[in-house]
Automatic annotation (TrEMBL):
Database matches in SMART domains: LRR_TYP (SM00369), LRRCT (SM00082), LRRNT (SM00013)
Protein name, as recorded: Reticulon-4 receptor-like 2b
Species for this entry: Parambassis ranga (Indian glassy fish)
Membrane topology: Lipid-anchor
GO CC, one annotated term: cell projection
Main localization (coarse): membrane
Keywords: Cell membrane, Cell projection, Glycoprotein, Leucine-rich repeat, Lipoprotein, Membrane, Receptor, Repeat, Signal
Family: Belongs to the Nogo receptor family.
């Protein structure tokens, strides 16, 4: 009997030990939300797992953040450095804006493999980034680095960030952008670069941004845009370049933005001489929402809108060079413009003055003023900035409402233009095309006479 009770007691003890072991395993492995630890000075929420440690004067990333935290809020503290061992958890959203971060070690975020949003904005002491600062963030979709006083960006700072869609770099102190800086950002749709100190846009600065939808570059110091700077931006719909130092913009650059819908170019010192011709031609064909483009030079066109100039305003310009920075193609003016010049040509001109030479025709294709010999040098004939000549100033003005009304309205009666016209073109004694017109009855009579004459010679 005693042996039987001992056996039962042993079985009970074994059962209790097994139950305790399973309970411990359940607490360790399953880890119910109610018993998850929360870092000191932080508040935790279970669904989704959120750790909020904002505005607690923290100087380092707190320890004890649950590994399965989906969102971690550390904004508005005094954190100064981010090291490779700062993050021992896996999260999707990490806010670190409004701190005193001065240094980010290469690979600091490499443990955050599923991170989708990283906000480092409003860290005014963050002036420099190491090349591998964002290594491993291949699932990152949104990166905020606004108002950080960044003066430069390493050429490989965005390497392998293939999932990035939103990049906020506005209101820093960036002076230039490396070629191919964004080449890995094939899914980027929004790029904010306004409020910096950028001076030029090179040929390859935006290469690879094939899905970019909006590009904000206003409030910079941009003076030059390469004619191929936008060649990969075929899907761009919004472009802001207002409040810069642009005097001209290559027409070819705008042709590459074939999907553009909203364009702001106001607040620039536009030069409306011959250098504006490629951009003006692009505006004639584009149907977009655009801001005004007020001319500041030459003085006779100051205050006018570049978009509302007429083709006659550019009729005295030299033939554009397809290989130049402007990248314009050969200009073709309508017959209405040619008609105006045919009526305002010099009253008399000798045959010798219209002898054509290759140099003269190239330098003065549409000039109403007879070229002088010997030809001027290219620097004299093609000034980059110039004042209007008396002939240009005499051209009639076009009101804005006539901008589209006269487009494509050509006068088919014009027979020749400028240097192509014979010397005595305006002389009534010179036979015109109308005087050579043959009526149908005259044509029949001529044919009958020809046949009769042929028969006469045949049978005579």
């Amino acid at each position: 009997m005693e042996a039987r009770w001992n056996k039962r007691g042993s079985s009970a003890r074994n059962f209790k030990s097994g139950l305790s072991l399973w309970l411990i395993l359940w607490l360790v492995v399953v880890k119910p939300g109610g018993v998850t630890a929360c870092p000191r000075l932080c508040v935790c929420y279970p669904t989704p797992m959120t750790v909020s440690c904002q505005s607690q004067n923290l100087t380092i990333v707190p320890s004890g953040v649950p590994y399965n935290s989906q969102r971690v809020f550390l904004q508005n503290n005094r954190i100064t450095e981010l090291r490779a061992d700062s993050f021992g958890f896996e999260t999707q959203v990490l806010w670190l804006y409004g701190n005193n971060i001065t240094w980010i070690e290469a690979g600091a975020f490499s443990n955050l493999r599923v991170l989708e949003e990283l906000d480092l904005g409003d860290n005014p002491s963050l002036r420099h980034l190491e090349g591998g600062a964002f290594r491993g963030l291949e699932k990152l979709q949104s990166l905020h680095m606004h108002r950080c006083k960044l003066a430069a960006l390493p050429h490989d700072i965005f390497h392998k960030l293939y999932s990035l869609q939103f990049l906020y770099l506005q209101e820093n102190q960036l002076h230039f952008l490396h070629d191919d800086l964004f080449s890995d950002l094939v899914n980027l749709t929004h790029l904010f670069l306004h409020g910096n100190r950028i001076r030029a846009l090179s040929e390859n600065v935006f290469r690879g941004l094939v899905n970019l939808d909006r590009l904000l570059l206003h409030d910079n110091r941009i003076r030059q845009v390469n004619r191929r700077a936008f060649r990969d931006l075929g899907r761009l719909t919004i472009l802001y370049l207002f409040n810069n130092s642009l005097a001209e913009l290559p027409g070819q650059a705008m042709k590459d933005t074939q999907g553009i819908q909203f364009l702001r170019l106001n607040g620039n010192p536009w030069s409306c001489g011959c250098e504006a011709l490629p951009l003006w031609e692009w505006f004639r064909k584009a149907r977009i929402s655009s801001s005004e483009l007020i001319c500041t030079s030459p003085s006779q066109r100051r205050g006018q809108d570049l978009r509302f100039l007429r083709e006659m305003d550019f009729a005295l310009c030299p033939m554009p060079d397809p290989g130049s920075l402007a990248g314009s193609t050969t200009t073709t003016f309508s017959t209405k413009t040619r008609w105006w010049f045919s009526k305002h040509k010099p009253a008399s001109s000798s045959k010798a003055s219209y002898q054509k030479s290759t140099e003269t025709v190239k330098a003065f294709p549409f000039s109403a003023v007879k070229p002088q010999f010997p030809p001027k040098t290219p620097s004299e004939t093609i000034p980059s900035k110039y004042e209007l000549s008396p002939d240009e100033a005499a051209l009639p003005k076009l009101e804005p409402e006539e901008y589209w009304a006269n487009y494509g309205n050509e006068d088919s009666s014009v027979r020749c233009f400028e240097l192509e016209c014979p010397p005595n073109y305006d002389n009534p004694a010179f036979p015109s095309s109308s005087s050579l017109t043959i009526s149908p009855s005259s044509l029949q009579l001529l044919l009958l006479s020809t046949v009769t004459l042929s028969l006469h010679f045949l049978f005579s």
